[in-house]
Amino acid sequence: MSEALTLLRLLAELDHTLHHISGRLADLDQEEAALHARLREADEAMARRREAHRKLRQTALERTAEADATDAKIREYQHKLDHEIISYKEMEFLREQVKILRARLDQLSEEALRLMDAVEEDARKLAEEEQHHRERRAQLEAEIQALGKKRADLDREKGELEAKRGEVLGRLPPFVRQKYDQLRLRFPNPVVYVDGQACSGCHLRLSEATMLKLREGREVVTCENCSRFLLLRW
Ligand SMILES: [Zn+2]
Question: How far is the centre of ligand 1, averaged over its atoms, from the C-alpha of 161 (Å)?
Fold first, then answer.
């Protein structure tokens, strides 16, 4: 077999492997994007959860403050009733207010207690969820890191193959290289194997004359239809 044919065969194999690697790299891109999306979703869900807890705590504190304010108001009115000289009308009014405020204070105190219990319970749940979230994050980040390593390996392999490919191209006779470059603009696979008696690039049947030249293996043969370089299988 002529050297040009050997080099073309090598080139075809290199291109096939490079094509395969490009496909795997594209798959890795997708996987990595999906993992980043899951990480983002988990973070967002956790942020919403923390906000819900913060709001619950805020409501409980507001209710407690309201109860304290009501209590202060009752004391103030009671002090007036006990120690100040006031009109009968005002006394009646203050007594009525104290009655109303006491009922309100009972209600507020009960609500504040119930809310404080709920906050405590929710804080326990939140701590568990935070722990689960940290574990989930660590797991996703480990997966992303593993993908990064795979990518680095593939990039290195791709670089080596491309260097080898450049070297093979450089060793091809100029007219073959020129034709190869032209074919590359049209096809991802300028060098193809013969499948039965058909070009595996365009799938059309090859003439007997072309098959004969291929079997002799002395010169570079191209498909009479699509012009791709042809090779017989090993
Ligand atoms: Zn063809």
Answer: 26
